[in-house]
């Protein structure tokens, strides 16, 4: 693909929903500072968002919002679904940025989230079958880690997780494996930062990987530090279906990033942070839910085939 064509295609790969933001702290049933970075799934014929809610201390918890069409008429629970537990050391400063996956073999949802300990942020796991009761399974890796998601099924008899450790001030996306969801090993770096590029300072996972016939589609964030702060955009990668540590394609351009006023205004201006994706294998539509400026929840739609084609997969 020529540079010009690639640029034009990247610009139209996502359609922002006309009524963004779809969820704001103003409409929340109790006093909060910000509502953003939600995990997303289809459950009981509804779209369910597990929204990160930041309270007026600056600590976060997770509360459910539901909608029939995944776009409008969000109904928000009066009570949090997952709260930081003051007796659990690693959750002392809140829990953040959930990613949700339906685990085929276990017949339950796995929620990976950031748990903020005094020793730094790390990633924890909770499971639920029905979004009524939930079981916390504890931390998966020591700090500093964020932005972990499981693959929805075992590959070669092992669970697979993407996550993002911080190493010498840089952050790359890694993959780890486990036979029991508790002990993780065989760690591999999968998507490193690219020196000099738009994703040169940090890369970190967006929503959980999406399975396609051609491989695992990954939306990731790339950060470049600039004189006026971080510039955070979104790129695409396709991982091998059977050996997912092998990157088949990685977009050279970013395909989504902060542009609209609601993405430029808020607690952290200039952030579009994608944490939830609901895809339909039949219609090929992908609804992506993201935090705008670390303040509100927004929606953009794309298409699985368009993203694969953009990556050069026919
Ligand atoms: C990341 C996380 C997210 C946040 C984003 C942009 O590192 O901390 O929670 O939304 O930065 O500020």
Describe, in plain words, how this protein is organized in 3D.
This protein is mainly beta. The chain has a single domain (3-310), classed as Glycosyl hydrolase domain, family 43 (Tachylectin-2, Chain A), CATH 2.115.10.20. Helix content is 7%, strand content 48%. The strands form 5 sheets. Strands 10, 11, 12, 13 and 14 form a 5-stranded antiparallel β-sheet that branches. Strands 15, 16, 17, 18 and 19 form a 5-stranded antiparallel β-sheet that branches. The longest helix is centred in the N-terminal third of the chain and has 10 residues, at 3-12. It is globular and about 55 Å long. 43% of the residues are buried. The mean pLDDT is 95. It binds beta-D-mannopyranose. Beta-D-mannopyranose binds at residues 37, 96-97, 268, 271, 273, 291, 294.
Shape: globular
Order of helices and strands: HEEEEEEEEEEEEEEEEEEEHEEEH
Total E-strand runs: 22
CATH class category label:
Mainly Beta
Bound molecules: beta-D-mannopyranose
Topology-level CATH name? Tachylectin-2, Chain A
Strand residue content = over 45%
Q: State the CATH superfamily name.
A: Glycosyl hydrolase domain, family 43
> Are there runs of 5+ residues with pLDDT below 50, and where?
none
Mean pLDDT: 95
Radius of gyration based on Cα positions: 18 Å
Domain count: 1
Helix content: under 10%
Under the CATH scheme, the architecture is 5 Propeller
How many alpha or pi helices? 3
């Amino acid at each position: 693909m020529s540079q010009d064509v690639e640029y034009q295609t990247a610009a139209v790969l996502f359609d922002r929903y006309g009524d963004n933001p779809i969820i704001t702290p103003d409409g929340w049933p109790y006093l909060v500072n910000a509502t953003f970075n939600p995990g997303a799934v289809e459950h009981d014929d509804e779209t369910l968002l597990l929204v990160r809610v930041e309270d007026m201390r600056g600590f976060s918890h997770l509360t459910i919002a539901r909608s029939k069409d995944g776009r409008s008429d969000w109904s928000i629970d009066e009570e949090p679904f997952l709260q930081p537990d003051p007796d659990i050391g690693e959750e002392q400063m809140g829990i953040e940025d959930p990613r949700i996956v339906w685990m085929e073999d276990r017949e339950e949802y796995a929620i990976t989230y950031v748990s903020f300990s005094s020793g730094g942020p790390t990633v924890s796991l909770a499971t639920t079958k029905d979004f009524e009761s939930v079981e916390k399974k504890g931390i998966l890796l020591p700090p500093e880690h964020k932005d972990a998601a499981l693959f929805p099924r075992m590959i070669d008899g092992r669970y697979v997780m993407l996550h993002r450790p911080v190493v010498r001030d840089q952050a790359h996306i890694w993959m780890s494996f486990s036979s029991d969801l508790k002990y993780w090993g065989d760690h591999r770096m999968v998507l490193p930062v690219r020196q000099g590029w738009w994703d040169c300072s940090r890369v970190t996972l967006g929503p959980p990987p999406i399975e396609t016939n051609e491989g695992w589609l990954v939306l990731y964030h790339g950060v470049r530090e600039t004189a006026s702060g971080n510039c955070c955009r979104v790129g695409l990668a396709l991982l091998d279906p059977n050996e997912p540590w092998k990157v088949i394609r990685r977009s050279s351009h970013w395909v989504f990033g902060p542009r609209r006023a609601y993405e430029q205004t808020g607690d952290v201006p200039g952030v579009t942070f994608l944490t939830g994706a609901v895809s339909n294998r039949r219609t090929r539509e992908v609804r992506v839910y993201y935090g705008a400026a670390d303040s509100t929840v927004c929606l953009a739609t794309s298409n699985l085939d368009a993203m694969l084609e953009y990556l050069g997969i026919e």
